[in-house]
Specification:
Elements: H1 7-16, H2 23-30, E1 33-36, H3 49-55, E2 60-68, E3 70-78, H4 85-103, H5 110-118
Antiparallel strand pairs: 1-2, 2-3
Protein name: Autoinducer binding domain-containing protein
InterPro entries: TF_LuxR_autoind-bd_dom, TF_LuxR_autoind-bd_dom_sf
Keywords: DNA-binding, Transcription, Transcription regulation
């Protein structure tokens, strides 16, 4: 997992254990395509993940999800405007590229895993 969200938000999200309550993560785990964060039904967000994210500048976002043997998904955000269709299309292309690169990846040696961890990149099997 690679994360570039504000540190304060990452810390708050982790301390509250919001991953499985996050409506965008739940959507990504059971759908394919793109979900604009503005389309998240507040009724699907009982822990208020989306309003909390907005407090950290993550106001306009999109979650992308795809399945091709395995599932890959990602969320991206802007502080001041929604993503346009061209940006979303470019993100889909990049997600597909990253998915293909990592789908058949080989086991990394411990030194490489340690270096990636220093960069806040978690490699999962």
């Amino acid at each position: 997992m690679f994360n570039c969200y504000p540190t304060g938000w990452v810390t708050s999200y982790a301390k509250q254990g919001l991953l499985m309550s996050d409506p965008t993560v739940r959507w990504a785990m059971s759908n394919e395509g793109a979900l604009l964060w503005g389309d998240v039904d507040p009724g699907d967000d009982p822990r208020g993940v989306m309003p909390q994210a907005a407090e950290y500048g993550l106001r306009y976002g999109v979650t992308l999800s795809m399945v091709s043997g395995a599932r890959s998904f990602g969320g991206l955000a802007h502080p001041d405007r929604p993503f346009d269709e061209a940006e979303i299309g470019a993100m889909r292309t990049e997600l597909a590229r990253l998915h293909a690169l990592t789908h058949d990846s080989v086991e990394l040696d411990p030194a490489t895993r340690a270096r990636l961890a220093e960069l806040s990149i978690v490699v999962t099997p």
